[in-house]
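Known limitations

Structure tokens in this collection are predictions and should be treated as such. Users comparing against experimental data should check residue numbering before alignment. To illustrate the layout, the record for amidase is reproduced below. The input appears on top and the generated tokens appear beneath it.
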Amino acid sequence: MPFFLDYLQHRRDCRFKQQERADRIRSLTAYQGPFTPSDRATLAKPIEALVSEVHNGTTSPQSILHTYGKVALKAHALTNCVTEVLLPSAKAWLDDKAQPINLQGPLAGIPVSLKDTVVVGGYDTTVGYSSFVGNKATVGRADGPMVRLLKDAGAVPYVKTNLPISLLSFESTNDVWGRCTNPHNAAYSPGGSTGGEAALLALGGRIGVGSDVAGSVRAPAHFSGCYSLRCSTGRWPKLGICTSMPGQEGVASVYSPMARTLGDLTYFTRAVVGMRPWTYDYTVHPMPWKGEVESEFAEAGKVLRVGVMRTDGVVDPSPACKRALEMVETAMKKDGHEIVELGSPPDMLEALRIASALLNADGCQMFESFRRTGEWLDPGAAQMRWLAKLPGPIRYVYYLWVKYVRRDAVWAGLVRNWRAQTAFENWMLVKEREAYRLQWAQWWDALALDVLVTPPNATPAVPHDGMRDAVSSCGYTFLFNLLDYTAGVLPVTHVDKALDQLPAGFSLKKLNGVARGAYMHYDADRMHGLPVGVQVVGRRLEEEKVLAVMKRVEEALGEQKYKLLDITELD
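Generated tokens:
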């Protein structure tokens, strides 16, 4: 199609989807009133209690859907977090006598939100690309396996949520659906790429599903103030999705749970694993829930060996993130746990180099192939694409300038080979990845750690378009994607302008290029009130242990435990 006509079609498709969403919302008058006392009572209950009430018939799943439908529409009005509105279909599924939703399942009647990438029958799965508009006629003809599992468990998909075009950003903006904003401060990102989920959950949604290839369920939980778990590959189903990077396996993307509370996150994860997801998705390991491991690490008397990662050696945590980590360290130490200094862990800059090269081994061609003429691209992804397209001699001159004129060995090392890799070079990167994983396994064994606690990111939420500068500041999460370790994020505190100022004499000029891009947007005055989280990390396939230790962390924090946003107070 000629460029001009391609652009016109892009604009038509974006207008169509936004109008379709607006019309659906406008028609849902029953979901747009104020919250009633009954709504407030429903929102106060954990999902386990709601499931029990649905099972015994004291609460109807339709009434639960009605309450959470109100939450979703109000949250969307505040943050633009919703893409596809499934509420009319959700009600029909519940009313259908054939019961496509199993109301005897472990998630009976619980509304679940889904990242826009998840395939729901009868709806588009745009991934933020206008070229995907209308694909309900092909990929969306029926529910994907993940949605079938959720319905068989009794969950009710009710909305899909916003994300960034390319999926390679800690922001969530695209031309099809617009910009999603942080529920605490509209000038900031809710995170990405599962940012719409995080915004909805922070404001009152209950459980959701996102994906994570470099931190995409963990950064949003940290930025917006909710809970998430990055499962290891093969623990959570991932069939029945669309993506911007099909075929990318150097750093595997995983689908994983998110929730408003830690109790709901644990119950949700346990319920899905209990559904034998390997019978729905051949990529899932036939590994039942390890209840004995969860019980062992949740037991109050068990003393944990907790390693504290104070820096990744590339970007030191900002004052707010350092304070949150210290709050957890102090609480765990007071609770009797053993705090372990890490000594000399494997070089984490090397991890960032390997992971970045593997993730973009195609030279950014795949995510770009779906983008139409004139379609907006996230500024971080645009920078990666620009570097990948530089002619080799010019890239080498740029590398020399960065390394020897700017004297920035960190950024120089990342950009030197930022281009499409040959098959041989890709194999060599996988070889390096496996050698690096071995280093970490041996180092962890030597320290005999139970878990690590780390910042989830060097800074709290970035302002809109901040990924232009902070695109490579993702090491605290990306590391554990490369290692395929289980990692969860829980909110701990908020930025405090009185406590979290940069030290006197701080200078951006003294930082490497990655750190400079991150700190360029750190401003404790403007960020005041934004959430700040902590990451709890286990080894591969240790979801039960990580969730149990997250509970121990919250128990240790006691009265300092994070206070969630309450959308009913904004009504």
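For this record: The first helix runs from residue 3 to 27. The first strand starts at residue 82 and ends at 85. Please report discrepancies through the issue tracker.
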